[in-house]
Amino acid sequence: MIWFLLTLTILYMMALVGVTFCFVYPFRTPIFLSPGFLGTAQEPTEFVDSGTGKLLRGWWVPHDDPKVVMICCHGFMMNRAELAPFASRFNDREMAFLFFDFPAHGSSQGRRSGFGFRERSAVLSAVQEARKKYPAAKIILAGSSMGAVASAFALGDDPTLADGLILDSCYDRLVDAINGWWLFLGGKKLRFFLYPIAWLGWPISGLNPFNVIVSRALKNVSVPTLVIHGEADSLAPLNHAKANYDALAGPKTLVTFAGRNHSEARWEEPDKYFESIDAFLNAYFS
Fold this sequence. Notes:
Blueprint: H1 2-24, E1 43-48, E2 55-61, E3 68-73, H2 85-89, E4 95-100, H3 120-133, E5 138-144, H4 146-157, E6 164-168, H5 174-186, H6 188-193, H7 197-205, H8 214-218, E7 225-230, H9 238-247, E8 252-257, H10 265-268, H11 270-284
Parallel strand pairs: 3-4, 3-5, 5-6, 6-7, 7-8
Antiparallel strand pairs: 1-2, 2-4
């Protein structure tokens, strides 16, 4: 009996370690959509992440004289294709767009994910590229999930980095988001089975998930901010959005979507979703 329990324990620990490695070193989702496919101009680009030294690849949707550059930052295990519809949706505005893949995602270099905390340096490098190309334009950071987290930390580090911020499905505490990820993927049983990964991931990723708290960074953010969140988000529950919203020091708007899960609102209720962004742009970047 003891050997049986010991064997089960060993197999369980091996499974946890294996899943943790797959989580920290994620599978790459193929690029499945592009602004050019949706009818807008598209130019390939690449630049170096100043924090990691990794080469990042992406697309420009250029404009002759943009008033605003929107830098679009994708979520975990996604890539630059995730927010590609933004360019065609706002094609009638005087805006340029920069889409790029974070390290370990899409076609950018790198293997290890930082779950938005380390990716702040990629956001910083993207802003530097935008300012070189369009020095007179205002900068809006628009992030989904992990991309929202990376944008929040980058702007928290340097409150002058951008002129506006859009946070879609942004978690607050990483440790809660890790457990929420398993709930999002497989329900309560999977979350219970994989609960120790929040601790195992610490030495494997080199990142303490208990100290990664987005609302702390947002206390330094005073630019206009739009917070978008699904009320049924199982990965980052609505209280995460409220904590982030309450921490913001500047003009802010919270738009929630009843019955919508993580990053689901833009696909299920695109009219309301993009109308909320239109209203934000009209209010602060007309």
